[in-house]
Amino acid sequence: MPIRLKDTMPVVDRLEQENIFVMTRERAIHQDIRELKIGIVNLMPNKETTELQLLRMLSNSPLQLEITFIQMATHRYKYTAASYLDAYYRRFDEVEQERFDGLIITGAPVEQLEFEQVDYWRELCAIMDWSRTHVTSSLHICWAAQAGLYYHYGVGKYPLEKKLSGVYLHRLEAPSHTLVRGFDDEFYAPHSRYTGVCTPALEAQDSLRVLARSEAAGPYLISSRDGSQVFVLGHPEYDAETLGQEYQRDLGLHREPALPENYFEGDDPQGRPRMRWRSHGNLLFSNWLNYFVYQVTPYDLEHL
Questions:
Q1: Measuring CA to CA, how many Å separate 189 from each of 52, 130, 165?
Q2: What whole-number distance in Å separates Cα of residue 255 and Cα of residue 253?
Q3: Residue 71: CB partners within 8 Å, gap ≥ 6?
């Protein structure tokens, strides 16, 4: 799939080195097709790393995508220069009159705060409310999945006894659902969070369906009945090294983190991480783009 980005965006060089097709604007406008407009609300601290992870996942499709990265105007970013955000990101107030085929909202390292304590919570609520009428389907990842379940359905979260970190086995609960088409009955996915969702409140929602869960990590993949909202309570976009990098970061902060489970060979932090979720992650993003976005979005987005 050709990804359309600003030619000067730093992540472009890395994508091209990985043999991922990035299309220039000039070439795109000469193709007689309509690209899908995908917005990405990137809440993660390391913007470029998350950009690369998500664009890898989105690249495994024959569809042409126009990517718009969205920043939170009500948040002061500590790890990303304002000049970078101004050059490659747009504020919500700059896009709220537009319509998008798909929207991705990433996780964020704020799950130990109450939702209302997050400094950009009101702005995120405005984005989630806007997505109901301006986006065909929205994909929420990790903390954003918890935030979306809370905002849209009143499903709360609770603190875990210790951080859930590792790669866990999951089982399908709805194998005939289009979002998991082609999935194995069992598959692995990484998790990295301090909170879980209130399962009874989740399962009491008739408009939601749990598609996959883990005995160790709980509900993982949830969809609204109409497919307009998808919630992923893990990190299928993570690189092989990400959990290890988070572990080393927490060690440096003297948090005494537990070793990520089922991750390092021989449970040795000096060992090589075992990447066991790449195929599932690629298939999840491809299915979402195809069945929940491309197959149902109107050709003229004004008819959304």
A1: 18, 30, 11
A2: 6
A3: 42, 77, 85, 89, 90, 91
Non-local CB neighbours of 100 within 8 Å, separated by 6+ positions = 37, 38, 39, 68, 134, 135, 136, 301
Residue owning tokens 């604007």: 25
Report pLDDT digits (tens) over 104-157.
Answer: 999 999 999 999 999 999 999 999 999 999 999 999 999 999 999 999 999 999
Could you identify the residue written with the tokens 């994909």? 139
Model pTM score: 0.89
Q: Using CA atoms, how far apart are residues 99 and 298, in angstroms rounded to an integer?
A: 11
What percent of the chain is modeled with pLDDT above 90? 75
Mean pLDDT for back-to-back runs of 10 residues, the chain (304 residues):
64 70 54 81 94 92 90 91 94 96 96 96 98 98 98 97 96 95 96 96 96 97 97 97 94 86 93 93 95 89 80
* Domain boundaries along the sequence of the chain: 3-161+195-238+278-299
In this structure, which topology does domain 3-161+195-238+278-299 adopt according to CATH?
Rossmann fold (3.40.50)
C-alpha pair distances (Å), 239 with each of 30, 226, 274: 34, 30, 11
Question: CA 52, 192, 214, 270 torsion: positive or negative?
Answer: positive
Identify which of 114, 116, 110, 145 has the alpha carbon closest to the alpha carbon of residue 128. 145
Catalytic residue numbers read 142, 235, 237
pLDDT digit string (tens) for 36-45? 999 999 999 9
How do residues 239-252 score in pLDDT, each as one tens digit? 999 999 999 998 88
DSSP-derived pairing of the beta strands 208-214 and 3-4: unpaired
In 3D, which of 112, 114, 90, 115 has the Cα closest to residue 100?
A: 90
**In the structure encoding, which two tokens stand for residue 199, read together?**
């399962």
